[in-house]
Amino acid sequence: MPAFEPDYVFFEPRALEYPLGQELMERFKEQDVPIQMTTSHNQVRGIPGDTPTAAYRNAKRTFVVGVRKTLKFDTSKPSAEYAIPLATGCMGHCHYCYLQTTLGAKPYVRTYVNLDDIFEQAKKYIDERAPELTRFEAACTSDPVGFDHITQSLYKAIEFMGQQKYGRLRFVTKYHHVDHLLQAQHNGHTRFRFSLNADYVIKNFEPATSSFQDRITAAGKVAKANYPLGFILAPLIRFDGWKEGYTELFERLDKELIADARKDLTFELIMHRFTKTAKRVILDRYPKTKLEMDEEQRKYKWGRYGRGKYVYQNDEAQELREYVQDLIKQAFPEAKIEYFT
After folding, report:
1. Three-state DSSP class for 191?
2. Domains of the chain, first to last
3. Are 294 and 310 in contact (CB under 8 A)?
4. Reduced to 3 states, what is the DSSP secondary structure of residue 22?
5. Dmax over Cα atoms in the chain, in whole Å?
6. Distance between CA atoms of 138 and 86, rounded to whole angstroms?
7. CB crowding 174-204: b at 16 or more within 10 Å, else e
8. What backbone phi and psi angles, to 5 degrees, belong to 211?
9. CB burial class (10 A; 0-12, 13-18, 19+) of residue 84?
10. Distance CA 159, CA 154 (A)
11. At what angle do helices 242-256 and 212-224 cross, to 10 degrees?
């Protein structure tokens, strides 16, 4: 699939006070992309769409350039100590994504141009915890790889963290547009993770993202660039033929990765789950989805604050866990499985 380019762009006025904001304005003008000004991202108006579904899809093709005002970073357990706020929103249409409910009806991509402020705050967090390592997650509410060819923000964050003795960066992506990141001076301080799944899951539930084979090929490139590498398998889904599907995934991955990459390889495993609210939103936005969300077939698991979600029954979850973990151990015996949930 081609790299993302927005159909509509909005600028917050303060964004033009920063070099990156000015560069992006010139870029979009040269491309003749429709540009509007907005007082803040909360006041974005004028995204076309005759129906809520059409407006939602157009919002996914919208880019908002703004300034990060709040420099207090959110925590990001268990993957990192903090979330580093480079951007929010994503152009993908993953049916199961938790951002379906957290980003509301206008899930446009919003990028922040005051990078020096963000990196300065990150340095403060690093210094507070030194000599312990401080990890930052760059993909909590976005997939920055998918549009970093436009902003270069992730590239700059990688090089910034490469200079931090006690700082480390992590992010995950479903996109294969990684070539410009291969040249970044990461110094081994950034773990580059790919969200992978069986081909069936990617084709049916992850529209507007890179293909099964493109992601695996990109992972091979990243490994050769000596980045620490990781994979998130999420959501693990029990579809018809799931064992064969996940077996094929590891066979392909085994052929792609060079020997050096296998010495420091991580896996994070997350089973499919859904809430009543998410189910309602998903069916509204993707009424023809094949995503299985039969509450009667699931186990209700209580969470924090009195809210819960529907997960696989214990025996189904155990079978899924054991099968995928065995595939990992067979193909990559030195890999670390960070968690299964």
Report:
1. strand
2. 197-272+312-341 (3.80.30.30)
3. no
4. helix
5. 57
6. 7
7. bbbbbeebeebebeebbbbbbbbbbebbbee
8. -75, 165
9. buried
10. 9
11. 30
Helical segments of 17-147, H only: 19-30, 52-59, 99-102, 115-129
Size of the chain in residues? 341
Q: What are the tens digits of pLDDT across the range 245-281?
A: 999 999 999 999 988 899 999 999 999 999 998 999 8
Token pair in block for residue 235:
């959501």
For residue 200, the number of C-alpha atoms closer than 13 Å in the C-beta half-sphere is: 16
Q: State how far the Cα of 219 lies from the Cα of 224, in Å rounded to an integer.
A: 9
Yes or no: say if 90 and 136 are a contact pair by the CB < 8 Å rule.
no
Q: Closest by alpha carbon to 197, among 329, 57, 320?
A: 320
Compute CA 53 distance to the chain's CA centroid, rounded to the nearest angstrom: 23
CB–CB of 325/245 below 8 Å?
A: no
Token output for 204: 């049916």
Model pTM score: 0.94
Pairwise CA distance, residues 281 & 97, whole Å: 11
CA 121 to chain centre: 22
Give the residue carrying structure tokens 């010495």: 263
Phi first, then psi: give them for residue 256, nearest 5 degrees: -90, -35
CB 219 within 8 A of CB 174: no
Question: Which three-class secondary structure state does DSSP give residue 24?
Answer: helix
Phi and psi (nearest 5°) for 313? -60, 155
For the cut 80, the answer to whether the pLDDT of residue 305 exceeds it is no
Alpha helices in 31-114 (DSSP H): 52-59, 99-102
Reported as type and span, the H/E element at residue 154 is helix 153-162
* pLDDT for 316: 98
Residue 227 has pLDDT above 90, yes or no: yes
* Matching residue, tokens 């992006």: 24
Q: Beta-strand (E) ranges in 212-312?
A: 229-236, 265-271, 299-302, 308-311
Taken in order 302, 318, 94, 254, the sign of the CA dihedral is: positive
Residue found under tokens 């915890």: 129
CA distances from 97 to 168, 184, 194, 205, 259 (A): 26, 29, 16, 10, 33
